[in-house]
Known about the structure:
Elements: H1 2-50, H2 57-71, H3 81-100, H4 104-123, H5 125-130, H6 132-140, H7 146-170, E1 176-178, E2 181-184, E3 187-190, H8 198-215, H9 219-250, H10 258-295
Antiparallel strand pairs: 1-2, 2-3
Amino acid sequence: MPGSDSSSAVLAAAPSLEGIGRRAPLLAAVAAFGLLFAPTLAGLVRQWWDDPDAGHGLLLVPVALFLAWRSGLPADVKRSHGLGAAMLVTAVLFRLAGSLAAELFTQRWAMLLAAAGLVTFFAGWRTVWRWWLPAGLLMLSIPLPTVLLNELALPLQFQASRMGAALLSMRGVPVELTGNVINLPGHQLFVTEACSGLRSLTALLSIGLLLGGLWLHSPWFRGLLLLLALGVAVLVNGVRVFLTGFLVFFVSPATGEGFMHTTEGWLLFVVSLGLMGLTTWALSALEARQGAASNA
């Protein structure tokens, strides 16, 4: 009968309409998030693309999203409406304050806080805790303010200069150090901000966080890996300054700039990755041995 057919169609459509109704608040919240933070996200992506010091964000964000998807939701999802709403309100206030002060760093962190607030509101704080590794990678993808970068770069420049000069002196190269300038016979090496190692430091910290989250279990061992990543970054950058001075003194001044200098940096970064891998393996073995001893 025509009447029964139409009734069946209405009943068949009812569950899907009900499902859409349940998802409506989430869809509305995601849409509001997109409208509020679209300019912030667009500017961040442009900086990732244009700024070599921030380009790691193009790799970290897809990895973070994949890890969050792979982790999934906890078995007992309990929404935290109060905490989530408080986080969202705080994020909006920080977004407005950052916009009024034309301060990008605050706006970008407000975007991360708002994303965490959405997850907390609709999936509970346990989900945010479960996604600590993706959250950490997203935090590292946010470029630091220029003022803070300058404050960090200068000590790293001096440290790399001191280490490079000491290694050159150990090899019998006559060297005189003045700040971040290494004076060689007939040549000067300037350890500029680009050679401070800050770029490799950020990359190695990200790799250390990722390796620790995937292969280590103890927070203490994960923290130790991050500290060792700092040491690896400083050490390798000092070696790079030494090699540059060594090649300039014994081979040719042309080896201290251009293609040779860039290639040297990439090769040493590959060495850094190998050192991080070996360090993670050693800490994993130590952690396993410690666990076996405690269970014995």
